[in-house]
Amino acid sequence: MIFAAIAGVLIILSILLDAFETIVLPRKVQRSFRITSWFYRNTWIPWTKLARVIRPNWRESFLGYFGPLSLIVLLGVWAAGLIFGFALVQYGVGEHVRLGSEPINFGILLYHSGETFFTLGYGDITPVSPIARALAVIEAGMGFAFLGVVVGYLPVVYNSFSTRELEIALLDSRAGSPPTAAELLGRLGCCPDPKVLDNIFRDWERWSADLLSSHISYPVLCFFRSQHSNQSWLAALTTMLDVTSLVLAGIDGIPKEQAKLTFAMARHSAVDLTQLVNARYDAHAPDRLPREGLVALRSLLSSSGMSLRDDGQADERLRKLRSLYEPYCEALGQRLLLAVPPWISAEKKKDNWQSGPWDRAIQAKGLGEALRVVDDHF
């Protein structure tokens, strides 16, 4: 009996510690084993395996269910663990009577623990010893606290998600969908006022810092997908790293000071989030910008009025900058099944804001000229 009580106490303390570290503690935990880490490792891997056999046009929607659903299931796992732990303690040290004088076994105590935790209070099982009564009061209070955690935790997570998605949505008209470095510089890099690009870099420096802070505090956000299948927090982060690395490698007329700060913060986020989700380095990942791709990028930037330095020193600097973040972004992409954006779009696609369910009907009536005029400016 005493061993059951000890095991129950250990289960309760383990779950309370895990919940505290996941919800309250605003920093990364270094312990080798955690219930939350074990839970996500053993649910995300089979979920992704199932996603790989689903039709590609349904896959992103299927993956999008994992984040919110896992959050609810994890809360259920914690509740079930606490109920089971208290049942073990009651079984080991408590004394109970049941209406009708029916015998008390562990299954009955598990039911009693559940009704106590959720404060149902049927009264069909009564604790009679001081220890059993104290445990019932503690468990009922913990049930109330658990409900408060659920009520307070979910809005905070979704508020952090909404904050993250705001800048991603703004990136649509600036860098395309999906975003690319070439598209962003082509649209904004040749602006006569260099402060425009500096302000964008400053906004994304803060966004990267907020991404790091919120996702370390609430790791489940890493699994939350964006509202559009061609957007993601990883694509946005990688695009800004690509853009700032090009500026640091040397583009005439674009100041480097703010680009350097944004690159540092974005790279910090990529590295820490890679460790957070236990992503692994892939030494055989394909080169995102081979020699011919760099030549095409220079040509594209030149046609937009920008000049990327064309010498061995600039190429080497760009290569070193890319080596600081690309392996981490690619590892995150493989771990989370998120697409890492290319440097240059393979084909011209409409931005999300340019698409709508009535566009064909409008154009068929000859009313699509306004949209084409706006499109020419992008």
Structure description:
The chain has 378 residues and is mostly helical. It folds into two domains: 150 residues, Orthogonal Bundle (Helix Hairpins), CATH 1.10.287; 199 residues, no CATH class. Helix content is 69%, strand content 2%. The protein contains 14 helices and two strands, in the order H-H-H-H-E-H-E-H-H-H-H-H-H-H-H-H. The chain has a two-stranded antiparallel sheet. It is elongated, with a radius of gyration of 27 Å. The model has no long low-confidence stretch (mean pLDDT 86).
Reconstruct the topology from this structure.
Blueprint: H1 2-24, H2 35-52, H3 56-64, H4 66-93, E1 96-98, H5 106-117, E2 125-127, H6 130-175, H7 181-189, H8 194-217, H9 233-250, H10 257-276, H11 291-303, H12 312-336, H13 359-364, H14 369-376
Helix pairs in contact: 1-4, 2-3, 4-5, 4-6, 7-9, 8-10, 9-10, 9-12, 10-12
User: Whole-number radius of gyration?
Assistant: 27 Å
Q: Write the H/E string, N to C.
A: HHHHEHEHHHHHHHHH
Give the low-pLDDT segments.
none
Give the biggest sheet.
2 strands, antiparallel
Can you give the helix content as a percent range?
Answer: 55-70%
Separate helix tally? 14
The amount of beta strand, in percent, is under 5%
Based on CA inertia axes, which overall geometry fits? elongated
Number of domains: 2
